[in-house]
Amino acid sequence: MSNYLDNLNWRYATKKFDTTKKVSPEKLESLLDAISLSASSYGLQPYEIFVIEDKAVREKLKPAAWGQAQITDSSHVIVLAHQSTFGEELVDNYLEKVSATRNIPLKDLGGYADFMKSKLVTLPESEKASWTARQAYLALGNLLSAAADLKIDSCPMEGFDAPDVNEILGLTEKGLNAAVLVAIGHRSEEDTTQHNKKVRKPKKELITHI
């Protein structure tokens, strides 16, 4: 745990990446494995992950991300895109995987299916999108922590125009909406923000024991 905490202290929102350094395929695959293992409500994972390495695509994304250099200077950009809406198929598709993975007859999962559908499918459309976005942010937290543990620098980015990103990546026709972008790579020695002391609330202000 001490190494993990040291790595969390090491990470920061990287402002300037070293354009000559790439995240290795092995580390990238480990990072993606960690993202795929993220917790989500009911295990449903109502989002998709896009890994953008293509320079031409990232040049298109840069104006949509308010011209931020991390989009083109980093090794990769990861886009977490949540489902804009969903119906019963979200639950059905998941339980088909449960049935196949755990060797449980699908009919034996009917009660659990009805319970999930009663809690989720009946939500108003605006709440569905909000719920799926929150699930994507759970994956974001895991991404950032795993990246730090792998000594991959990262910068989570909410500063972008989602409709433009959706259009560039063809997300809308897939029923998806860009929730957050994450630039990953290796920090530049010229990034002076890496030397800033981390500022967090003292634990006595942040945490209440009851």
Identify the CATH architecture of the largest domain: 3-Layer(aba) Sandwich
Q: What would you give as the CATH superfamily of the largest domain?
A: NADH Oxidase
Q: Give the strand order, joined by hyphens, for the main sheet.
A: 1-2-4-3
Question: Hey, roughly how much beta strand do the residues contain?
Answer: 5-15%
Distance between the ends = 25 Å
Helix residue percentage: 40-55%
Structural category: alpha+beta
CATH top level label of the largest domain: Alpha Beta
Largest sheet: 4 strands, antiparallel
Oligomeric state of the chains present here: single chain
**Count of discrete domains:** 2
Q: Would you list the SSEs in sequence order as H and E?
A: HHEHHEHHHEHEH
Number of helices: 9
Shape: globular
Could you explain how this protein is built, in words?
The protein is of the alpha+beta class. It has two domains: 147 residues, NADH Oxidase; 34 residues. It has nine helices and four strands, in the order ααβααβαααβαβα. Strands 1-2-4-3 form a four-stranded antiparallel β-sheet, with helices on both faces. Helix 3 packs antiparallel against helix 8. The chain starts with a helix and ends with a helix. 29% of the residues are buried. The model has no long low-confidence stretch (mean pLDDT 97). Belongs to the nitroreductase family. It comes from Arenibacter certesii. InterPro entries: NfsB-like, Nitroreductase, Nitroreductase-like. GO terms for molecular function: oxidoreductase activity. Keywords: Flavoprotein, FMN, NADP, Oxidoreductase.
